[in-house]
């Protein structure tokens, strides 16, 4: 059909506009294929690894060895394996955790080099090895012995190699794990023995089986410590935060892009048909069928959708492997293979085709439905005034305000497009900044803000007496709400006149430590207010305890309930003057063997700094993408406004309006929509952020606050305004190019 | 002389063909007068008027309006010239479709130094009760009234009308012409008007006949006729 020659000509004439729409589609398909690809691959790798290498369901230490583990295995229908762990200090700030090689559970996967065979050999966690310079073939001095590095290893219970389960950030510069043969532990003092358990029945609730298992242990007179379920074990679960994050992102971001492309292509096509109504009517009159015209007009959106979908998906495929590999450098899992999903590509192509095809079809159909006679008269309808415009009472406003308002309200779909576009770009941009801000806040809060200690020492056994100079004692126990074992937190007894724990109320006034305070993230998660009495189950003895909460502390240092240590000991029937840990402002000389864990805030600081680097670049990329999307959207709308107003602009020129005046009237008309879009973006972002954090909290037991920093909001706003200025600059030329003869030649109206 | 044009030339070149649209045009009009340009289609009427209005430029010759040689003005100065001195009325009204009648008039009053009151000019064109209507909701004659109101709200020295009645019927045309005459009387506005209709010339002080880019006749009309008495 000769009519179709026009399609390319139309595309060429408004090149920049269609390139803009194409970019939106490409971005949509690209994010979908990449995000879905990474999350599916990573999920696949993690699942294959944890299932194939028998990830534990729980682990614990005991006061005395389990006498007959075979009997217990049978009784609880599980696999039990015991392994050894020893923290070897390589330097003041570098710890290598030596683990004994296991056979049944948490089976090490050698990902480079070879298996352990002879004595004096070690397999290292690759991130640690890389960060500290231990390639395969080198040797490492740990726990007084020299080991030869024969390979790198992944461990199902150390996918995210945290030193302490309650840490948030890994830091290969401070900590790593290594696997050695059991025999190597002989001669090392104070080696911890840890039991791993995995249940054979994967269909029954693992929580229930775990509870029963614990009862059995107690039945045999064994007291356990350091009990940790896999679901609460960030070392194993943290990867799922990224997987879920990406999975969640793989839907709304592309959906927003496709929706925006839908809206804009709908507007463009609609305007095209409207302006060509007379031609269409004439073609009808000459015997063209509606189907033929439909095909003609559908060609443009379909061409764009297919091109964009294919380009986005094809561009996405090569970026999946490097992205997964980058994630694997954080999450230590063996990379078996990375699959490029054909169905994802298909979705990445078909979704925009469906979105754009359907919206264009509806628009075109509604326009082509009219009779040839009606169409041939068509020119007139295009200047119809909508109800909104009619309803406006603008008497009081300045002329320029009236003009701008009318300009925006002229097309509701255009207004919607601009508004939604700017909001979603703002949301995306603010998202990045807020994640960074939350992390930063939590970190600052937990280091400088809430705690004034430098070292935390947790003891294996109860201690008695007074704290050494510069330190304070505390007692901690793990608890969970009666019907949700997934939420696990510490109740900590602290010195009533503690100088180290400094909690604040939400009003900013200090909270005394001689009362029971709950940190805000935990209070929010459990729905607790000041004045409530709440009952929790102690993980240790399984018995319920009731606490009266006096205040909620505005601290994001973690999920804690703090109370005076004397009260804590009394309630848990622990001896007076006993404690389980020390907070100290300086390094204490405590033999490693007595400790179940230590934490140094300066190490956390370093880890945070390491994390902040990639974080900043992530935020920069997100901001850049948002700006590009914003630019496309604002440019599209502005160029549409200019086109619709050619005659008016020309008229303004004849009347002696100056360039700047015309530019201000026409180009600045979007300002209030853009500002409104941005402002609306803030609560939308906060809500979705809250939802995501809530999800994260449930998933990996990590609660982050949504803290919107005015500074970052200002930065984002500035970025959006800058984008706006840029698009105005691009469009100013178009305004200037409108000639005065436009109005002089204008026919009807 | 308020308008003083002499030896004005203008030609369009397309490829090898040179189209001389205005050849040595000379014309004069006094302040407060009504001038009418008559001539067949394509004779260069609009081109001449556009040059006088500062929308277009002549190639050579002299165009003085109110003592200013506008051919020497740069683009910004021309913009100011149009902004301060000239009112335009077009054959097809050229109202901004999504602005109300009142707002359309504000388009111009917004940028003039000492505009007349919007309600006053609306009253002058008998459109005060339609201030909040949109152009589409008005008849052609009513739209032209609004366009005249828009042109006079800045109280221009010179009102240029390119076939103001070209799209209107007999009765409506007469009422528009009457209105223009009233404006001329009330505000002392000099008016230059293009028309196809020779009968309309009767209301003008000076009549210029244009043919093939030349003024073939320039007549002074001593006995101007009130618009309502013109018939054709
Ligand atoms: N931009 C242009 N480029 C080339 N030629 C032009 C241009 N504008 C006008 N012309 C030519 O100049 C001549 C005069 O045009 P003009 O518009 O002044 O005529 P007119 O007398 O106003 O006619 P009408 O009564 O039909 O409005 C015409 O022959 C036209 O083709
Ligand atoms: Mg003309």
Automatic annotation (TrEMBL), chain A:
Keywords in alphabetical order: Cell membrane, Membrane, Transmembrane, Transmembrane helix
One Pfam family from the record: FtsX
Give the residue spans that cross the bilayer. 15-38, 251-270, 297-320, 340-364, 415-436, 618-642, 662-686, 698-724
Cellular component annotations (GO), alphabetically ordered: plasma membrane
Under InterPro entries, the record lists: ABC3_permease_C, Membrane_comp_ABC_pdt
Which residues are in the ABC3 transporter permease C-terminal domain?
Answer: 255-369, 621-735
Its main subcellular localisation, reduced to a broad class, is membrane
Question: Which compartments does it reside in?
Answer: Cell membrane
Give the way it sits in the membrane. Multi-pass membrane protein
- Could you tell me which PANTHER family the record lists for this protein? INNER MEMBRANE PROTEIN, MEMBRANE COMPONENT OF PREDICTED ABC SUPERFAMILY METABOLITE UPTAKE TRANSPORTER
What name appears for this protein in its UniProt entry? Methyl-accepting chemotaxis protein
TrEMBL record, chain B:
Family membership noted in the UniProt record: Belongs to the ABC transporter superfamily.
Q: Which residues form the ABC transporter domain?
A: 3-232
Q: Which SUPFAM superfamilies match?
A: P-loop containing nucleoside triphosphate hydrolases
Name recorded for this polypeptide: ABC transporter ATPase component
Under PANTHER family, the record lists: ABC TRANSPORTER ATP-BINDING PROTEIN MG467-RELATED, LIPOPROTEIN-RELEASING SYSTEM ATP-BINDING PROTEIN LOLD
- Keyword entries, A-Z: ATP-binding, Nucleotide-binding, Transport
Identify the domain of life.
Answer: Bacteria
InterPro entries named in the record: AAA+_ATPase, ABC_transporter-like_ATP-bd, ABC_transporter-like_CS, MacB-like_ATP-bd, P-loop_NTPase
Pfam families in the cross-refs: ABC_tran
May I have one GO cellular component term? membrane protein complex
Q: What molecular functions are annotated in GO for this chain?
A: ATP binding; ATP hydrolysis activity; transmembrane transporter activity
């Amino acid at each position: 059909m000769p009519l179709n020659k026009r399609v390319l000509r139309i595309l060429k004439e408004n090149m920049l506009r269609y390139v803009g729409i194409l970019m939106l589609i490409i971005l949509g398909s690209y994010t979908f294929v990449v995000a879905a690809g990474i999350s599916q691959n990573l999920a696949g790798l993690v699942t294959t690894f944890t299932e194939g290498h028998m990830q534990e369901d729980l682990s614990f230490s005991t006061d005395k060895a389990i006498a007959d583990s075979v009997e217990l295995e049978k009784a609880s229908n599980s696999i039990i394996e015991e392994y050894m762990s020893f923290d070897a200090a390589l330097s003041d700030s570098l710890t290598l955790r030596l683990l004994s090689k296991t056979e049944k559970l948490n089976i090490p996967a050698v990902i480079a080099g070879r298996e352990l065979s002879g004595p004096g050999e070690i397999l290292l966690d690759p991130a640690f090895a890389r960060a500290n310079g231990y390639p395969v073939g080198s040797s490492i001095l740990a726990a007084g012995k020299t080991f030869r590095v024969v390979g790198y290893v992944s461990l199902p219970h150390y996918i995210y190699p945290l030193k302490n389960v309650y840490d948030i950030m890994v830091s290969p510069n401070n900590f790593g794990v290594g696997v050695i043969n059991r025999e190597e532990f002989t001669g090392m003092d104070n080696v911890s023995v840890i039991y791993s358990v995995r249940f054979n029945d994967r269909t029954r609730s693992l929580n229930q089986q775990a509870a029963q298992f614990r009862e059995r242990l107690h039945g045999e007179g064994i007291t356990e410590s350091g009990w940790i379920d896999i679901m609460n074990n960030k070392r194993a679960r943290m990867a799922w935060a990224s997987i879920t994050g990406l999975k969640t992102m793989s839907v709304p971001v592309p959906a927003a892009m496709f929706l925006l492309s839908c809206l804009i292509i709908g507007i463009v096509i609609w305007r095209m048909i409207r302006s060509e109504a007379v031609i269409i009517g004439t073609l009808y009159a000459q015997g063209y069928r509606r189907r033929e015209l439909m095909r003609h007009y559908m060609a443009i959106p379909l061409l764009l959708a297919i091109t964009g979908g294919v380009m986005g998906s094809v561009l996405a495929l090569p970026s999946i492997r490097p992205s997964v590999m980058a994630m694997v450098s954080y999450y230590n899992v063996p990379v078996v293979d990375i699959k490029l999903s054909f169905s994802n590509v298909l979705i990445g192509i078909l979704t925009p085709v469906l979105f754009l095809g359907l919206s264009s079809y509806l628009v075109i159909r509604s326009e082509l439905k009219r009779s040839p006679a009606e169409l041939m008269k068509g020119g007139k309808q295009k200047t119809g005034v909508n109800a909104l415009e009619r309803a406006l009472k603008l008497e009081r406003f300045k002329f320029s305000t009236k003009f701008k308002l009318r300009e925006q309200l002229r097309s509701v779909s255009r207004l919607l497009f601009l508004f939604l576009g700017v909001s979603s770009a703002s949301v995306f941009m603010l998202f990045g900044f807020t994640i960074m801000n939350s992390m930063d806040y939590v970190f600052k809060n937990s280091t400088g803000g809430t705690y004034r200690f430098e070292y935390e020492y947790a003891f294996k056994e109860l201690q008695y007496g007074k704290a050494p100079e510069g330190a304070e004692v505390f007692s901690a126990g793990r608890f969970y709400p009666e019907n949700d074992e997934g939420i696990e937190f510490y109740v900590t007894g602290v010195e009533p006149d503690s100088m180290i724990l400094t909690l604040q109320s939400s009003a900013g006034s200090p909270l005394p430590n001689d009362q029971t305070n709950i940190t805000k993230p935990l209070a929010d998660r459990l729905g607790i207010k000041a004045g409530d009495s709440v009952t929790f189950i102690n993980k240790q003895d399984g018995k319920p305890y009731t606490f009266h909460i006096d205040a909620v502390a505005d601290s994001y240092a973690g999920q804690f309930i703090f109370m005076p240590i004397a009260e804590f000991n009394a309630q848990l029937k622990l001896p007076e003057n006993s404690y389980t840990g020390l907070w100290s402002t300086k390094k204490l000389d405590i033999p490693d063997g007595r400790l179940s864990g230590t934490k140094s805030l300066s190490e956390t600081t370093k880890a945070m700094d390491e994390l902040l680097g990639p974080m900043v670049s992530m935020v920069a990329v997100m901001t850049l993408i948002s700006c590009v999307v914003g630019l496309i959207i604002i440019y599209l709308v502005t160029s549409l406004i200019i086109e619709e107003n050619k005659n008016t602009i020309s008229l303004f020129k004849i009347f002696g309006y100056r360039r700047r005046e015309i530019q201000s009237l026409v180009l600045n008309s979007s300002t209030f929509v853009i500002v409104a879009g941005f402002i609306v973006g803030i609560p939308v972002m906060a809500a979705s952020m809250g939802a995501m954090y809530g999800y994260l909290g449930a998933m990996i037991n990590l609660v982050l606050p949504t803290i919107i920093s005015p500074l970052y909001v200002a930065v984002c706003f500035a970025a959006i305004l800058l984008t706006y200025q840029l698009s105005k600059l691009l469009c100013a030329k178009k305004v200037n190019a409108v000639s005065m003869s436009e109005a002089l030649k204008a026919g009807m109206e | 002389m308020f308008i003083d044009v002499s030896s004005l030339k203008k030609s369009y070149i397309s490829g090898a063909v040179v189209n001389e649209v205005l050849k040595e045009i000379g014309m004069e009009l006094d302040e407060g007068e009504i001038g009418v340009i008559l001539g067949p289609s394509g004779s260069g009427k609009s081109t001449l008027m556009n040059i006088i209005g500062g929308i277009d430029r002549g190639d050579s010759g002299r165009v003085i309006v109110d003592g200013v040689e506008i051919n020497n003005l740069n683009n910004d100065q021309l913009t100011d010239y149009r902004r301060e001195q000239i009112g335009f009325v077009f054959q097809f009204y050229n109202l901004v479709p999504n602005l109300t009648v009142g707002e359309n008039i504000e388009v111009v009053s917004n940028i003039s130094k000492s505009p007349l009151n919007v309600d006053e000019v609306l009253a002058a064109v008998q459109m005060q009760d339609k201030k909040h209507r949109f152009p589409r909701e008005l008849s052609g004659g009513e739209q032209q009234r609004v366009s005249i109101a828009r042109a006079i709200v800045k109280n221009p020295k010179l009102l240029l009308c390119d076939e103001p009645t070209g799209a209107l019927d007999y009765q409506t045309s007469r009422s528009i012409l009457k209105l223009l005459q009233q404006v001329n009387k009330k505000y002392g506005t000099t008016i230059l008007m293009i028309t196809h209709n020779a009968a309309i010339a009767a209301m003008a002080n000076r009549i210029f006949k244009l043919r093939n880019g030349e003024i073939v006749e320039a007549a002074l009309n001593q006995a101007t006729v009130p618009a309502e008495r013109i018939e054709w």
